[in-house]
Write a structure and sequence with these properties.
Number of helices of chain A: 3
Helix content of chain A: 10-25%
Strand content of chain A: 35-45%
Oligomer: homotetramer
Distance between the termini of chain A: 23 Å
Strand order of the largest sheet of chain A: 1-3-4-5-2
Largest interface: A-B, 19 and 19 residues
Largest sheet of chain A: 5 strands, antiparallel
């Protein structure tokens, strides 16, 4: 399921109570936030965090989100989000995610997000070279 | 863009400050919550609200979410979410959404969600007949 | 309960599913967002919305939040938030809120928030005169 | 600032992008969620997590929240939330929190929450004895 030809970042956290809903499971929009935190963790792992990326005046605007919900998660559960770069082009990048139980590795949610790189004025810009290298470079920094 | 052969519910609201992020636009996960509120409004329009549906022991579990982000929205903006049933089968239902500026009707986000009908124990159940009627019935109640 | 010597803004909305938690009630942090939407509605009622306030380079930073939870609310319920200015000084302002059921007017939550006026650089600034007038002016615009 | 006569739990996390707002800082309602996660971490540290507490049919309903915002936090920042039991009575409990920068220990937010213990039917129940012991027991388990 996870790609073996590229770097996969993993980060683990507890489900917060506020992230659940009246079905007593994690609300489906919370996983979209987990995806984003997966991207943040990915950039931290790579030694170039996204906060710094923004300080340089570049932003990754989300253009598409897709999520498939396989098994509900519940409050207090430890989840691991696995994040990798699925594809990178001159002006766009696609991340993919797999969210599993941290202990059993059972699958909960999988998804993808697409992004374009924009500057402060909203103009589309080239994805920095380091992100392209990340996509194909198997090793962490 | 909107289907003309079925009922389309419309509901309008102001973007809340908490729904924005540090890019000064509506956070992409907020639209997933708007989709859900679109479904709620749809069922209210149809005279059978989702709260009542749950009181009868049935739930529409989300199995898939897809969203395409066309233009960012900002705090205070009035958005209209248009919601319709795209497809309904014996055990599954698909809603589609279009979020537009309430005044200019400019497109911001479009998306789809898929659901299965489950009972309190999580067993898959048949979609109630009225939902199937809704899908093809053009008129509001 | 509501003050009779000043303007009270009222706005009504449905509880969203995402705002509930695994106790099957509205999550306590959601009411803090409702307070904020109460402030937004207040400024819209007054004919000078907060979005415009920010476009002029001023922000009301939150310095304190207090909330008292009296009765849980649930998904789909129609709530009314009543908002008024409790107090205004040269550099600070205090809003107060009462959240009630839109139909029965039963009390759910009451609270207060304190704010200072800051500019883009975070410097404390004087509260604009119109806000001081609002505090004591009983009539809507 | 932190009490020295009782157990203080500390947990550290990165600010998520979704938790920020258009002022480019952490939205004030996000800290209320951090408080809750502080309580969760406290119970995990104590060897009796809150998820288990709920499985036994008891819930800590929030009756009051107070927060004082001292310094804004930003996306990506590592925050530490310190949580302790301020007070415990037969049917009520009060938690207190201090949120600091994980590296500099600079103060960002402090607050308190009050709770009553209820069962599934919403009836007020006695706080379990272990929680009373925790309040005065200085050592972790």
């Amino acid at each position: 399921m996870l790609p073996t030809d590229r770097y996969v970042s993993e980060t683990t956290f507890h489900v917060r109570y506020a992230e659940t809903d009246a079905m007593r499971i994690v609300h489906h929009s919370s996983y979209i936030v987990y995806f984003e935190e997966g991207r943040s963790a990915y950039t931290r792992d790579r030694g170039q965090d996204y906060a710094n990326f923004e300080r340089n005046g570049l932003f990754l605007a989300v253009t598409e989100v897709n999520a498939r919900y396989i098994k509900p998660a519940t409050y207090g559960q430890r989840l691991t989000i696995c994040t990798w770069i699925e594809n990178v082009k001159s002006r766009g990048i696609e991340f993919a995610y797999l969210i599993v139980d941290a202990d059993t590795r059972e699958k909960h949610v999988e998804g993808r997000t697409r992004h374009v790189c924009v500057d402060r004025e909203g103009r589309v810009r080239h994805i920095p070279d380091e992100w392209r290298v990340w996509a194909v470079d198997h090793k962490s920094q």
